[in-house]
Amino acid sequence: MKQIPLFGVPRLPEMEAAALEVLRSGQIASGKYVQMFEQGIGNLVGQSHVVSTHDMTSALFLALHLAGVRSGDEVLTTAFSCMSTNSAIAHCGAVPVWVDVCPSSVEMDVADAARKLSDKTKAVVMYHVAGYPGPAREMAELCKARGIAFIEDCNNALFALQDGAHVGGLADFSIYSFYPNRQINCIDGGPWFANRRRWPRRHVNSGVSALTARYSVQRTAKLILPRTFLRSDGRTR
């Protein structure tokens, strides 16, 4: 019987060369390689304010924190999502309030979200299920009307289009994942995108703007691998 592999690494030599390039440069945290990655992935999804983190959970926690979510607040989301979506909310000290999903699409039901808004609601985290875009425009309008933050969890929807544009562009923040079962994957990693210029860099490296050399091999080694799938102009190879 022929064995069909669940996954393969047809470009392993190229990936190994990219990782070695980082290690031999001596710039194993921050630096030009992370900047190249952030610019490349930003170009792919049409976002200019990009910050890379070591995983999607950290990206979501940071987005929630910058959105002002604190202990005792409520965040609307769905139980039909990755566990990390809800754990990041709990890590902020906030309470996840689960919104029902539409039976036909298993995406968040905007009408039910409107019913579950309260004076404690600080944000909505909408999860795009299995790469299928949810009702982002309707949810963005609801959040804008109530003056709360809208975050798109796009970790299963990289490159997904909605009304001709990549998902994530309607939110205050959008987050992605490079966990091994994602569209582009590596050891881990999770960039986040902000649609307000003043937010992205404020909390990177504790606010230190200087490049950090020989600090942590983990951050860049994880994030450099997806770079092998991007050309210098930001397009996929």
From TrEMBL:
Q: Does the keyword Transferase apply?
A: yes
Q: What is this protein called?
A: DegT/DnrJ/EryC1/StrS aminotransferase family protein
Q: Which UniProt keywords apply?
A: Aminotransferase, Transferase
Q: Which family does it belong to?
A: Belongs to the DegT/DnrJ/EryC1 family.
**Which SUPFAM superfamilies does this chain map to?**
PLP-dependent transferases
Pfam families assigned to the protein according to its UniProt record, in alphabetical order: DegT_DnrJ_EryC1 (PF01041)
One GO BP annotation here? polysaccharide biosynthetic process
Keyword hit for RNA-binding: no
Q: Which domain of life is it from?
A: Bacteria
